[in-house]
Specification:
By secondary structure, this protein is mainly β. It is built from 2 helices and 25 strands.
Amino acid sequence: MSSIHRFTIGGTADTALGVELLPTFQEPVLPATRDRSVEIPGRHGRYLFSSDLAAREIVLDLVVIDSTTAETLQSLSRAFAAILLDQDGHPEDVTLVFTKEPLKTYTVRYSGNMPLQRLIGGSKGYFSLPLIAADPFAYGAEDTDTDNIIRSNQTVTVANAGDYRTPPTITIALGTGSTDVTGFTLLTRQLISTVAANGRFGTARFGTVRFGSVAENTYATQFLSYSGTITVGDILEIDTDNMTVTLNGVNARALFNGTFPLLYVGNNELHWKDEDASRDVDLVVVHKPRYL
């Protein structure tokens, strides 16, 4: 068995598999880009519209600690197959965690082939395990914020500790003594800059601003609304990653309007508004911070 633990795949440590990462292994700093551009006759270069990140390709260069017998190699092959393939033999999504960042998890899938090279007369074998992360981000531990909404125009704060915006799942249910809620709006916003009323200069998140004669806050905002009725016992779930809206597990997308918000990096203000006389709403926001 190996004694140097450097990664865990599908919940199984490299030490348990009897493999080690080669010192030459280089994790990609960033995924490749997917650029959208066009060439215009008479103009130099290309016109670049926008760019996204492509899937992250990770190739684990591994050494097998003991490959002296065919039985050992077969056992290793079956161990990796049990981790990387489902019951029908298809590659499936598994978790990948490097020990240098134990709180960040990639979701990867086997993609390619991994022939083993064994040195003649030697006890060690070498192979590369090709993996692909369709979602190029690594994610931290799930974070849950639960707030009680008892009035319209109430604002709660949700913090995103990651390095990038991330999609939350928003769940809404009513307390046992609540009256029905007939439609609501939810505004996700983050303060960008504050302009005070003293005529001085100040520093905003995106640069320097002059403080004018009227105090003013500038926000980045995302807006959603739901026009259906929610009663006690109902569970409304808005999954912003998969862009689905369900009421008690049934598709309610037709009653949804606006955008599926992403949580900004840092503190987010979620501003609830409805037209009902009273309400007792449990607002649960679940998200995973994400990193590259």
